[in-house]
């Protein structure tokens, strides 16, 4: 294929040449990929779809045109954010042709937010980081003092928010002194200077509560309050901090780091300052409550004094009462001491009577035991005599069958000297065989010299 004319080299020559649609689309796609290098394209996201395969399909558009885009899973999984409908983004893509449908598309390799989107992305990233560190945890936030002795304000001297805050404080709490700590709220280095002023407030220890505020504006105007240095200074402050930045819909990192977030600078002034009219009204109420309480206490004391006066008696009468009370206690003590003894004796008599009723007759049982003993002795003697007679009969029978008696009648037993078995047939007698002969008065070992066996039926 000719690198200078890829389309021409892929199509057959001749005016009447016919090519398939797929070949045409393929040639157009090859030409687009070689003619357009990787470029950054900006636009607004629309029709975003995440397929089950993990691929992203969407379009980017502006006021005059739009272009379909595809970002394959291998690239999409490394994207720092997921586009949403209406986001303005920039994509780094290659112009390609989707051959099956013959549609032009951008093969996206990377994407990023543009303009306000970049700032918002940075805002979310820093917010997530500080939240993970615990700077926004509710347990570290402190309660604002109910009656501050002095109020501090960190803002620009030219800010319209300062006038609103001072006007609100003068109207609500003119008796509380206000100290302004000037610092720029917009521009290069504004966040660092605001943080330095917060640290100065903590070093001087002049106020009990601090307001960090400025008026509304774009996200670029409020960006000083989204810087990490200011958020960390507010979180480390020993003086409770109220943030009042922008309008009610504006949220900054300083709002999350502060102990209390106010929707507006004026709202911040109202949060830190007790209203003087309400304080005076509460003071009158407390004064009236105190007066009523003091009056009721005096009445109770007077009533108690009258009651004590009625209880006051002469020493002689008091001694007589105590003597009478002592006699009553003595009678009760004597009665209480005698009652347990009577109860114990009655219980003992009852138990003795019950024991006598159920006590066994020993003589009757002793007579029965004697009779049983006589019967047992008689049964034992009779059993012994029967067993002795039986043993004697067995001994006589054993004596008759004893081998010793057979030997005494002249018989002998021949046993093999090695195996100890008895010899029963003449054929077992062989010359040179050693035998043991058992007789009536002993035994002897012999060796056979010459044997002539003879078989007979008996003697």
From TrEMBL:
MF terms in GO: exodeoxyribonuclease VII activity; nucleic acid binding
Pfam families given in the database record: Exonuc_VII_L, tRNA_anti_2
Domain OB-fold nucleic acid binding: 20-111
UniProt-listed InterPro entries: Exonuc_VII_L, Exonuc_VII_lsu_C, OB-fold_nuc-bd_dom
Gene3D superfamilies: 2.40.50.1010
Source species, domain of life: Bacteria
Catalytic activity of the protein: Exonucleolytic cleavage in either 5'- to 3'- or 3'- to 5'-direction to yield nucleoside 5'-phosphates
An individual GO BP term: DNA catabolic process
Enzyme class label: hydrolase
Alphabetical UniProt keywords: Cytoplasm, Exonuclease, Hydrolase, Nuclease
E.C. designation(s): 3.1.11.6
Boundaries of every Exonuclease VII large subunit C-terminal domain copy: 135-445
CDD domains named in the record: ExoVII_LU_OBF (cd04489)
Cellular component GO terms held in the UniProt record: cytoplasm; exodeoxyribonuclease VII complex
Subunit structure and binding partners: Heterooligomer composed of large and small subunits.
Name of the protein: Exodeoxyribonuclease 7 large subunit
Gene (name only): xseA
